């Protein structure tokens, strides 16, 4: 920002979370435009600079192949598929909640579990349950075959779910171990009809199954809400801003 200001180069910044972080609070004074993910964030930014864009999404995520997904996992399409994502390091609480519900889940769903490094459990190996520590190139194909997604509520992750229009259950990090932005993120998506929110403190086999049934049975309503959102086209809106300022 300092170098750009010295050379009179206009700068666009992006705030992923609901509330601006320290770096963006400092930078917004000289930024020309401030992009954000949530309608609520617009009210916290200078009115002449704030633009609701959503997050620019990796284009390859939108081009997944169902055939490739089934071939990679070895799953069949005889049951709907639940994909659980806990980030590259995984989530101990969400991993445990999902695994506690496996006997019930696997009666109705296939489960793809991205459990994080060091979190594989070979004792749980069984038909219909696939575990990976981490997935990179094939993630687009796993999204393509997934009917619903269980995830933390980090800004990038949930904006990818919005762009892909995947009905989802969000388990945000509790305020005790974060600054609370995942809770705010999740509640915004819940308010807009994009997500079902399940607090970590209430996560167990029964509450997870209730959430899964709610989201899967009403998946069309979640998809419809996401389809009408203006927050899922981040790339196009950001490029338009860049062109306007160049």
Keyword list:
246 residues; 14% strand; alpha/beta; six-stranded parallel β-sheet; 9 strands
Structure described in brief:
The protein is of the alpha/beta class and 246 residues long.
Q: Would you count the extended β strands for me?
A: 9
Our count of helices gives 12
Computed over alpha carbons, the radius of gyration is 19 Å
Low-confidence stretches: none
Supply the helix-strand structural class.
alpha/beta
Largest sheet: 6 strands, parallel
- For the record, give the distance between the C-alpha atoms at the N and C termini, rounded to a whole number: 16 Å
Q: What strand line-up does the widest sheet have?
A: 6-5-4-7-8-9
Estimate the strand proportion: 5-15%
Helicity level, as a percent range? 25-40%
The coarse silhouette is elongated
């Amino acid at each position: 920002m300092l170098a750009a200001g010295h050379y009179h180069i206009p700068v666009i910044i992006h705030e992923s979370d609901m509330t601006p972080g320290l770096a963006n609070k400092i930078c917004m004074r000289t930024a020309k435009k401030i992009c954000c993910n949530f309608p609520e964030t617009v009210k916290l930014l200078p009115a002449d600079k704030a633009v609701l864009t959503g997050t620019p999404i990796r284009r390859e995520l939108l081009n997944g192949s169902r055939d490739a997904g089934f071939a990679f996992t070895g799953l069949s399409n005889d049951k709907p598929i639940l994909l659980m994502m806990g980030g590259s390091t995984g989530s101990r609480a969400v991993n445990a909640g999902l695994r506690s519900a496996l006997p019930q889940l696997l009666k109705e769903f296939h489960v793809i579990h991205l459990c994080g490094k060091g979190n594989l459990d070979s004792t749980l190996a069984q038909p219909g349950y696939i575990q990976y520590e981490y997935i990179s190139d094939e993630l687009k194909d796993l999204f393509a075959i997934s009917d619903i997604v269980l995830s933390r509520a980090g800004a990038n992750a949930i904006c990818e779910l919005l762009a892909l229009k995947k009905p989802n259950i969000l388990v945000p990090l509790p305020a005790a171990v974060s600054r609370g932005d995942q809770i705010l993120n999740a509640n915004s998506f819940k308010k807009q009809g994009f997500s079902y929110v399940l607090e970590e403190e209430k996560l167990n086999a029964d509450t997870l199954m209730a959430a899964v049934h709610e989201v899967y049975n009403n998946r069309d309503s979640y998809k419809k809400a996401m389809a009408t959102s203006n927050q899922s086209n981040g790339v196009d809106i950001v490029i338009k801003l860049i062109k306007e300022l160049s």
